[in-house]
Design goal:
Radius of gyration: 16 Å
Number of helices: 3
CATH class of the largest domain: Alpha Beta
CATH superfamily of the largest domain: P-loop containing nucleotide triphosphate hydrolases
Distance between the termini: 41 Å
Number of strands: 4
CATH topology of the largest domain: Rossmann fold
Strand order of the largest sheet: 2-1-3-4
Number of domains: 2
Largest sheet: 4 strands, antiparallel
Structural class: alpha+beta
């Protein structure tokens, strides 16, 4: 992460976007999006269809590669260290492709195992 924009001793943002842009041929879906989101903060993307909300989320989650800009998740550069960035992120797409034979709990266990997340159970297992 670029420490020039972060004062020494300040917390690392849970999510940092710097100049995130995504274009498809002649269409600019996201243009120069920058933000810092810290633990405990809540952010909602609001806008009409085609505004770039899903594209932004897919770039953050590593499903799409940004055309330009940087994405950091808990200090992990999503381009240089994508596995660590994904392991620090909980992303459920608007149309999740779950394995038909798995329960939700089994799917979460599978995803945690795939990314090497060992402490993914935050509380008691739902009944």
């Amino acid at each position: 992460m670029n420490n020039e924009t972060q004062p020494a001793g300040s917390p690392v943002p849970a999510l940092r976007l710097r100049g995130l842009s995504k274009t498809y041929a002649d269409l600019t879906a996201v243009k120069d999006c920058s933000l810092d989101l810290y633990a405990g903060q809540v952010l909602g993307f609001v806008g009409p269809n085609g505004a770039g909300k899903t594209t932004t989320m897919r770039c953050i989650a590593g499903i799409l590669s940004p055309t330009s800009g940087e994405v950091f998740v808990n200090g992990h550069d999503a381009a240089k260290d994508p596995v660590s960035a994904k392991a620090a992120l909980a992303y459920i797409p608007d149309d999740p492709k779950l394995f038909d034979g798995l329960t939700v709990w089994e799917h979460l266990r599978f995803a945690a195992s795939a990314y090497g997340v060992v402490d993914w159970k935050a509380g008691p297992r739902p009944s």
